[in-house]
Amino acid sequence: MVVEAVQHYIDVEHRSAKDATARAMADISGSGHRDRPDPGGGLRAVGFIPGLVGRLYQQFAITIAISVLISAFVALR
Known about the structure:
mainly alpha
């Protein structure tokens, strides 16, 4: 997903590779900050729900957040 977004910004908007990557990561992560992409931002909130429901979702939220971070790292290699 990151690679396709970067290629789009290079082809369509004629940006440099570095600028296109920063823009694609900001768009995909939804953080709005080009310097600090946050791909797992929405998933962290699920991990802190209190009570029984929170305990059930906590393991899934942590697993998904770690998977998203690993996926982003592999995509940017």
